[in-house]
UniProtKB/TrEMBL annotation:
<dbReference type="InterPro" id="IPR041829">
    <property type="entry name" value="SoxB_N"/>
</dbReference>
<protein>
    <submittedName>
        <fullName>Thiosulfohydrolase SoxB</fullName>
    </submittedName>
</protein>
<keyword id="KW-0732">Signal</keyword>
<dbReference type="InterPro" id="IPR008334">
    <property type="entry name" value="5'-Nucleotdase_C"/>
</dbReference>
<dbReference type="InterPro" id="IPR036907">
    <property type="entry name" value="5'-Nucleotdase_C_sf"/>
</dbReference>
<dbReference type="GO" id="GO:0009166">
    <property type="term" value="P:nucleotide catabolic process"/>
</dbReference>
<dbReference type="InterPro" id="IPR030998">
    <property type="entry name" value="Thiosulf_SoxB"/>
</dbReference>
<dbReference type="Pfam" id="PF02872">
    <property type="entry name" value="5_nucleotid_C"/>
</dbReference>
<feature type="signal peptide">
    <location>
        <begin position="1"/>
        <end position="19"/>
    </location>
</feature>
<keyword id="KW-0378">Hydrolase</keyword>
<dbReference type="GO" id="GO:0016787">
    <property type="term" value="F:hydrolase activity"/>
</dbReference>
<dbReference type="InterPro" id="IPR029052">
    <property type="entry name" value="Metallo-depent_PP-like"/>
</dbReference>
<dbReference type="InterPro" id="IPR006179">
    <property type="entry name" value="5_nucleotidase/apyrase"/>
</dbReference>
<comment type="similarity">
    <text>Belongs to the 5'-nucleotidase family.</text>
</comment>
<keyword id="KW-0547">Nucleotide-binding</keyword>
<dbReference type="GO" id="GO:0030288">
    <property type="term" value="C:outer membrane-bounded periplasmic space"/>
</dbReference>
<dbReference type="GO" id="GO:0000166">
    <property type="term" value="F:nucleotide binding"/>
</dbReference>
Length: 573
């Protein structure tokens, strides 16, 4: 942070708010505290709120944090690659508390029953309004991955989330999964729905023909008389991680030099504070903060990391704060800056968990949500099956819901091997809780969800695994694309995240036999980024049919690789 006089983090514990067990869903009387636990002491003269990666979750949900989030090389043992007890130790959080539940997977099922669901736009709206009342002039920043991730967003072509953003009071946003609705739809929303209401900023999206920026790189907003520049950084690898044909005329990239120019331009136009609203991912943001000067804070997303306190990064021009605000509407970050003599002198930061049992639903927002959901309610509420295990997605190598998807693919497409993308979005389901069609849609609702059955050689299978592994575990963050390792059904293998490209995957076996590099195998999958895909069912149809047939799912046996050279890694439970 430029001329940072003191780096301090002020917070408070929410644990006193739960004086009694809140296991009965919706029983707010059991969890109300005498004082408002969301009453943050005011500080400074510039305040910004930040949420990111909500993935179109309008209602309160369950969401389990990962038990595997490995850091490799310089990131080993560093934020955000800390899980479970390691996370608690880093921040001095007591086990069994609300903070421990909000930020880790520890004792997840029992804690979730006790503390209830998280997020929900009606509850988030209440919190945003409370913070705004405490901090007049504060801005609300949306880090992207807002329009995609639910059945209603898919069916309404993202209009549900656009309307919800406007009702929430978003001031500025950037993007990633928004692009999977296509360039024309993105431009339509920005130019019509958002016009004069929400600033859509992305300094790193350029046209292929004239190499000109497609969107404004930044906006300058005045907060209590202080000009604040907010620069957008969309996900740099959108045309690689998602279908290129959906944004065929645009190029992306990290573009450090362009970012530096945007910072200089914003300051040249009078900005005294520079905030980067980023969808790079935490590791990439940390590296960018070390290279680009003049940024006071990077408020980041993409990797879904709930970062308890900002990381302060030194660079040639001073210091930069780097934060990441989790996912699924589970958190609201509040950054308070004390700006003196045109420079940031001090700050306070708190990442607030959004617990629906502690926050009344805003009536107007709830009415909007009910209206959005009404045409789809019967379909969403269909109960497909029940599972004895907790269903979740997050984790570097697999999750129980991903395993269920792989099992459904292998059975539904009659294939001995399945690939499912390592997406980090998707809600959790508690043991014994009915698995509804909505839960399936939460894991699968994308605009390119067609299932595939391809013939692949053993060599091709290995190359795919190695390629995805390098996207996740490359020692240079600028070559990481975020997300997790592709989920694999049927295939057993060993994995060394510390090895070089092409050498991480070994000991591959299928049905107890070594995978033959020259032999061809049927492989089921979904979410192909190719423009031309053979007509087939959608993934949510395959998974829903599988669950309807099974009706009851027992304990799920995760198919995860045998890990090598990870002893002592604090990103492993």
């Amino acid at each position: 942070m430029q001329m940072l006089a003191a780096a301090s983090v002020a917070g408070f514990s929410l644990n006193h708010a739960f004086a009694a067990d809140a296991s009965k869903e919706g029983d707010k009387t059991a969890v109300k505290a005498p004082n408002n636990p969301y009453e943050l002491p005011a500080f400074g003269n510039v305040s910004l709120m930040h949420y990111t990666d909500c993935h179109a979750q309008l209602l309160p949900i369950y969401f389990r944090e990962p038990n595997v989030n490995l850091g490799i090389g310089s990131m080993k043992g560093a934020v955000p690659h800390l899980v479970g007890e390691h996370f608690l130790k880093k921040y001095g959080i007591e086990a069994g508390t609300l903070d421990a539940h909000a930020f880790t997977y520890l004792d997840y099922v029992e804690a979730a029953k006790k503390y209830g669901k998280v997020g929900g736009f009606a509850h988030l709206k209440t919190l945003v309004d409370q913070v705004r009342a405490q901090r007049p002039g504060s801005l609300l920043l949306d880090g992207g991955d807002t329009w995609q991730g639910s059945w209603t967003s898919l069916k309404t072509n993202a209009q549900d989330m656009v309307d919800a953003q406007l009702a929430l009071g978003v001031d500025v946003m950037t993007a990633h999964w928004e692009m999977t609705f296509g360039a024309d739809r993105v431009k339509e929303i920005v130019e019509k729905d958002f016009a004069g209401k929400i600033d859509f900023v992305a300094q790193n999206i350029f046209s292929n023909d004239f190499d000109e920026r497609v969107f404004e790189p930044f906006v300058i907003k005045e907060i209590n008389g202080i000009p604040v520049g907010i620069i957008g950084q969309a996900f740099p690898y959108t045309p690689v991680a998602n279908p290129r044909h959906m944004v065929a005329d645009w190029s992306f990239g990290i573009r450090d030099a362009d970012m530096q120019q945007a910072v200089d331009d914003a300051r040249g136009k009078g900005a005294k504070v520079i905030i980067v609203l980023s969808h790079n991912g935490m590791d990439v943001d940390l590296k960018m903060a070390s290279k680009v000067t003049g940024i006071d804070a990077i408020m980041g997303g993409h990797t879904h990391d709930g970062v308890f306190q900002p990381v302060v990064v030194e660079n040639a021009g001073g210091k930069t704060l780097v934060t990441n605000a989790g996912s699924n509407g589970k958190f609201l970050g509040v950054l308070d800056l004390d700006v003196k003599d045109g420079k940031v002198a001090d700050f306070r930061y708190k990442l607030l968990p959004v617990f629906s049992n502690l926050l009344e639903a805003n009536k107007d927002m709830q009415t909007l949500i009910d209206k959005i959901r009404e045409p789809y309610q019967k379909e969403l509420a269909e109960e497909l099956a029940v599972c004895d295990d907790v269903l979740y997605r997050r984790g570097n190598f697999n999750g129980t819901f991903d395993q269920l998807i792989c099992d459904a693919l292998m059975e539904g497409l009659d294939a001995p091997l399945a690939f499912s993308p390592g997406f980090r979005w998707g809600t959790s389901v508690l043991p014994g809780q009915p698995i509804t069609f909505e839960h399936v849609a939460d894991q699968t609702a994308i605009t390119y969800g067609t299932v595939t059955r391809n013939e692949m050689t053993g060599e091709t299978v290995k190359n795919i695994l190695e390629d995805v592994a390098d996207n996740l575990f490359n020692a240079d963050p600028y070559y990481q694309q975020g997300g997790d390792m592709v989920r694999v059904g049927g295939l057993k293998f060993s994995f060394d995240p510390t090895a070089k490209m092409g050498e991480r995957v070994s000991d591959m076996e299928l049905d107890g036999k070594p995978l033959d590099a020259k032999k061809t195998y049927p492989v089921a999958g979904w979410a192909s980024v190719q423009e031309e895909v053979p007509k087939n069912k959608q993934i949510w149809e395959v998974v829903a049919d599988y669950l309807r047939d099974k009706k009851t799912i027992g304990k799920i046996e995760l198919n995860t690789p045998k890990l090598k050279n990870v002893d002592g890694n604090e990103g492993l439970a």
